[in-house]
Design brief:
Elements lengths: L2 E9 L3 H24 L7 H16 L3 H21 L10 E5 L3 E4 L4 E6 L2 E8 L2 H8 L5 E6 L5 E9 L10 E6 L3 E5 L4 E3 L1 H23 L2 H14 L2 H24 L2 E5 L4 H5 L6 H8 L3 H15 L3 E4 L16 E3 L2 E3 L6 E3 L2 E3 L4 E3 H17 L11 H10 L1
Parallel strand pairs: 8-11, 11-12
Antiparallel strand pairs: 1-5, 1-7, 2-6, 3-4, 4-5, 6-7, 8-9, 9-10, 13-14, 14-17, 15-16
This protein binds zinc ion.
């Protein structure tokens, strides 16, 4: 299996180079739009499309041979994606160009990229940090995408292929419960508290509401200044959230790797409905809808593959209501869980005396851990009903 990581690198073009990039982006987008409008709408085959439009496209837009091929490939890919969604292809904005090995080069000694633009190849300096250098130093990338961001800066997203280690055979599992009060709680008792983050996000939300009010009601100069401030603040929360999610997922994977365990998290489909169950006012809805659990899972997934840690998705039904010691339904009130199994009850064919009580998220994480371990166990799953006790009971009744 190959893993493809995308390394995003900021470009530092000279003014002249920036103009050339701008022209190339426009020509590429125009070519895509032209190809899309001139070829039959159903056509998604690259080779057929190439025989139809290649020469005309080159002469009309001045693109190099490979850039023309890339434009054709882009149109085909977009048409296929649109077909799946049952839509037709919208326009092409002059914001990105795809590059392959023949029109893109990376110099890891001087940290510059060579990109074929409209009139020949340009060597453009990159402005990157140690993280990107580490990822790129050994790599021999064969594809990349040149993009222009909303703020006007240019980036090159380089695709780096690597062969991740084979997932190890594991018997134990780190259970992780995702939630709102604790963003993540592990079966080892560690948790990443969400309270501080929630306070900060509340503050930001209030600030945004005030700014929005001023942006519509204030005087002309106030409105202008507010718009500038909104521009500056936009994206800050998104970056903050991504940073936290990167930190949490990195720590979880590191811990599992060190112990030689797998990681089990709940299948996230429907987490929104579940965390939304109780409180329904506007503030609460915003709070429960705004944490990016989906992003956290994506980060976990790729970091797990990279380190060879198996990631197990489990069905979260009843994991927060079941006692992890005796596997019977208990009582959950907010963050507290209490096992209400009667003393001397029967569980898994054995007489048990439980009454466990403690942190509800920890209890759920323990359940995840046991379910995850049972899935990955080389000898087959062991979490099943043992019927011996019942058989004995039945035998004694007959
Ligand atoms: Zn119990």
């Amino acid at each position: 299996m190959k893993q493809v990581l995308t390394v995003s690198c900021k470009l530092n073009p000279s003014t002249e180079q920036a103009l050339k990039i701008g022209a190339a982006l426009k020509a590429f987008a125009d070519a895509c739009t032209w190809i899309n409008t001139t070829t039959p709408e159903q056509l998604t085959n690259k080779t057929t499309m190439q025989t139809l439009v290649y020469y005309d496209c080159r002469t009309l837009f001045g693109l190099s041979a490979n850039l023309t091929v890339r434009a054709i490939a882009r149109v085909c890919a977009n048409r296929k994606a649109a077909k799946v969604k049952g839509r037709s292809v919208k326009g092409f904005a002059p914001t990105s160009i795809d590059y392959d090995a023949k029109i893109f080069g990376l110099n890891t000694k001087k940290w510059i990229v060579g990109l074929t633009l409209l009139d020949g190849r340009e060597q453009i300096a990159m402005s990157i940090g140690n993280y990107q250098r580490h990822l790129l130093s050994e790599a021999k990338p064969t594809s990349a995408t040149l993009t222009k961001r909303k703020d006007g800066t240019y980036h090159i997203n380089i695709q780096v292929k690597s062969t991740p280690p084979q997932p190890e055979e594991v018997t134990e599992c780190l259970g992780v419960d995702l939630g709102r009060t604790d963003i993540a709680h592990t079966s080892q008792g560690e948790f990443y508290c969400g309270q501080q983050l929630a306070d900060l996000r509340d503050k930001r939300s209030k600030q945004r509401a005030q700014l929005q009010h001023k942006a519509t009601k204030g005087t002309r100069s106030t409105r202008r200044r507010v718009r500038q401030l909104q521009q500056r603040l936009s994206g800050r929360e998104r970056r903050f959230q991504a940073n936290i999610n990167h930190t949490i997922s990195h720590r979880l994977v590191k811990q599992a790797k060190a112990k030689g365990w797998s990681i089990a998290i709940e299948d996230l489909a429907g987490i929104r409905e579940r965390t939304n169950k109780q409180p329904r006012n506007k503030t609460e809805r915003r709070r429960s809808n705004s944490w990016a659990f989906f992003q956290l899972r994506q980060f976990l997934a790729y970091k797990c593959v990279r380190s060879g840690v198996p990631l197990v998705l489990i069905n979260p039904a009843y994991t927060s209501q079941t006692c992890h010691c005796c596997h019977r339904i208990g009582e959950r009130q907010g963050k507290q869980f209490k096992c209400v199994a009667p003393p001397g009850g029967l569980a898994a064919g054995r007489l048990v005396d439980c009454g466990w009580h403690g942190d509800a998220d920890f209890n759920a994480a323990m359940n995840h851990s046991q379910l995850g371990a049972s899935v990955m166990c080389p000898r087959g799953p062991w979490m099943a009903c043992h019927l011996e006790g019942f058989r004995k009971l039945l035998a004694s009744c007959q």
